[in-house]
Amino acid sequence: MTDNKELEIIKKLKECGKSSYYIAKKTGLSNSSIANWLNGKTSPNPANIAILEHFFEIEDGKGSNNINAGVISHSTVNQDNRSYYSDSPDVLRARIEQLDRLIEEKEYRIKEKDAQIKEKDAQIKALLEIVAKK
C-alpha cells in the first residue's frame, strides 16, 4: 500500500525532467530501482524516500546555499593498496536500514523453515512408529 510520501516522491520523479540514471548517480540509489518506481513495478521504502526528498531539496535549491553541501556522493578511494568505499551519511544510513530490514526478513524466513522442519520431523517419527508396529 502506497502512502502520500511515496506518491509525492514518485510524482516528483516523473515531473523533474531528470533521467533515472542521473538521479541514481546523484543519490547512490540503483538506476533499476528508480526505473521500477517510475513504472509502478515497486515502491520506494522509507529510507529511499528520505534520500529522494533530500535530493529534491538540493535540486530545487531549497537546501544549503553551498553547492556541494549535502550532495550525496559515491566514490571509491584507493590508499595504500586498499580500497575504501565512501558515501554520504544519508546514503550510509539508508543502506544500513535496508540491511536491517533484509536481516529481519531472513531471520523470519529461517524461523519459518525451522518450524516446517520440526513439523516434518514429527510426521516422520509418527510414520516410523506406525511402520515399526506392523
From TrEMBL:
Residues 96-130 form a coiled coil. Residues 9-62 form the HTH cro/C1-type domain. Keywords: Coiled coil. Pfam families: HTH_3. It comes from the Bacteria. The keyword Cell membrane does not apply. InterPro entries: Cro/C1-type_HTH (IPR001387), Lambda_DNA-bd_dom_sf (IPR010982). GO terms for molecular function: DNA binding. This is Helix-turn-helix domain-containing protein.
